[in-house]
């Protein structure tokens, strides 16, 4: 069994859905370190497991079993993540790696349990260089999005569908992987071209589980969305992985980065759909600003992006450069 399958098997086997996390914590006879109590936590753990497995398989191909991993591999993985992750994200990854080891230990046979020494508690937290190298602050113009979407359509992958959602509705990568065809409407809406519904809870992929309605801004956006759902059934995911299931956010982000690199060189180095969100936000703000106060426009744009309703101008400033 590959490292990837070992990790995913361990995580899914440690599902404790339906168990009371609170009750378990108060019972000294129950080991909660390996238990995964919610569907949202399960998805986060699966994402981390796949990411770490990919690193091991590419960078340490001689390792064939999860118990062969040591502190050096964990540290190397975290050091690599420092270029693309903020400090808080790095902390979260360390925590999930600790949980992943507990899951692997839990399902291992007795003779292998003592071989695990990932030592995540001893890992030196790398200093994030994201602000230096990860140029997510550069908005990707609509004309550039059009070009890379055209390029991506030549590939035999539905990553282009997810990228189209980001380009024309400002959706986060995770949200694009969860959206179903039935949640796109091509009539009515704020501008008469329809809307996209992000459903409540982890099944919708929304950050913080916040539901929202995203308006389809114009005819071009409507046509682009119609093209990616053509021939699909209402309950189908808009973007389906090569294996026929849900795509991962990493698939979406890496696909966009690769397309940008091929088309634009280093102009949008390390950028992804986040730059598309910025362009959507500015366009939406410009469209509604003449019809309402600046405060209302800020609030509505934050809501369209999936931010908290009280985030305000300061929270929107990194998305909308011109708040006239």
Describe, in short, the structure shown.
Helix content is 51%, strand content 3%. By secondary structure, it is mainly alpha-helical.
Describe the structure.
- This protein is mainly alpha-helical and 324 residues long.
- The chain folds into 2 domains: 3-131, no CATH class; 142-316, Intergrase catalytic core (hpI Integrase, Chain A).
- 51% of the residues lie in helices and 3% in strands.
- The chain has 15 helices and 3 strands.
- The chain has helices at 3-13, 21-25, 39-59, 71-81, 87-107, 110-113, 130-133, 142-152, 159-169, 173-178, 219-229, 249-264, 273-288, 294-305, 312-316; strands spanning 184-185, 195-198, 212-215.
- Strands 1-2-3 form a 3-stranded antiparallel sheet.
- Helix 8 packs antiparallel against helix 9 (159-169), helix 9 packs antiparallel against helix 11 (219-229) and helix 13 (273-288) packs antiparallel against helix 14 (294-305).
- The longest helix has 21 residues, at 39-59.
- The radius of gyration is 21 Å and the shape is globular.
- The model has no long low-confidence stretch (mean pLDDT 91).
């Amino acid at each position: 069994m590959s490292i990837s399958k070992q990790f995913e098997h361990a995580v899914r086997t440690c599902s404790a859905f339906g168990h009371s996390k609170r009750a378990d914590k108060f019972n000294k006879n129950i080991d909660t370190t390996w238990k995964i109590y919610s569907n949202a936590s399960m998805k986060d753990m699966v994402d981390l497991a796949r990411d770490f497995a990919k690193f091991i398989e590419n960078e340490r191909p001689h390792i064939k079993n999860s118990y062969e991993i040591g502190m050096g591999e964990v540290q190397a993985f975290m050091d690599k993540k420092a270029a693309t992750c903020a400090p808080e994200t790095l902390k979260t990854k360390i925590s999930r790696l600790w949980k992943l080891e507990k899951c692997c230990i839990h399902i291992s046979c007795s003779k292998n349990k003592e071989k695990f020494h990932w030592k995540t508690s001893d890992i030196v937290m790398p200093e994030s260089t994201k602000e230096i190298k990860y140029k997510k602050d550069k908005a990707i113009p609509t004309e550039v999005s059009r070009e890379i979407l055209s390029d991506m359509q030549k590939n035999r992958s539905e990553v282009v569908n997810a990228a189209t959602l980001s380009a024309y509705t400002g959706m986060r990568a995770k949200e694009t992987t969860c959206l179903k065809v039935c949640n796109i409407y091509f009539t009515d809406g704020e501008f008469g071209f329809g809307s996209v519904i992000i459903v409540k809870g982890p099944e919708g992929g929304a950050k913080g589980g916040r539901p929202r309605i995203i308006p389809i801004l114009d005819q071009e956006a409507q046509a682009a969305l119609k093209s990616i759902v053509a021939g699909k059934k209402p309950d189908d995911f808009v973007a389906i992985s090569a294996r026929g299931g849900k795509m991962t956010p990493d698939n979406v982000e890496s696909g966009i980065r690769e397309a940008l690199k091929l088309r634009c060189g280093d102009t949008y180095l390390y950028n992804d759909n986040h730059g598309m969100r910025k362009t959507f936000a500015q366009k939406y703000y410009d469209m509604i600003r003449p019809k309402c106060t600046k405060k209302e426009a800020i609030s509505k744009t934050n809501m369209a992006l999936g931010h908290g309703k009280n985030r305000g101008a300061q929270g929107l400033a990194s998305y909308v450069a011109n708040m006239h």
